[in-house]
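Posting this for the archive.
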Amino acid sequence: MQKGEPPTCARSSMFLIGKNSRGNWVVQDQRGTCGGLFVDRVKALRFALFENGNNPQAVVMVPGVLELNTSGRPIAPPLLPSNDGARRKLQMA
């Protein structure tokens, strides 16, 4: 990327950050077009902020499990917690 070139993802996109079932940090834009796996939260947050134009209001920390969506389809909203209080899970559309 050259200086002055826009980030690879749309600046207006909201980004979700959470851990997957293997303990890796996941970043995924809500549109399902951009994301990645990271070894720590700081690097995941840095990526999300860079890709969305440094807009912290458009970054959401997801409780529970967040698996990387590689389908390219938008992510559905989080499901409500189950009756037994199990972790929330984002369902891929």
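Confidence is low (pLDDT under 50) at residues 79-93. Residues 41-51 form the longest helix (11 residues).
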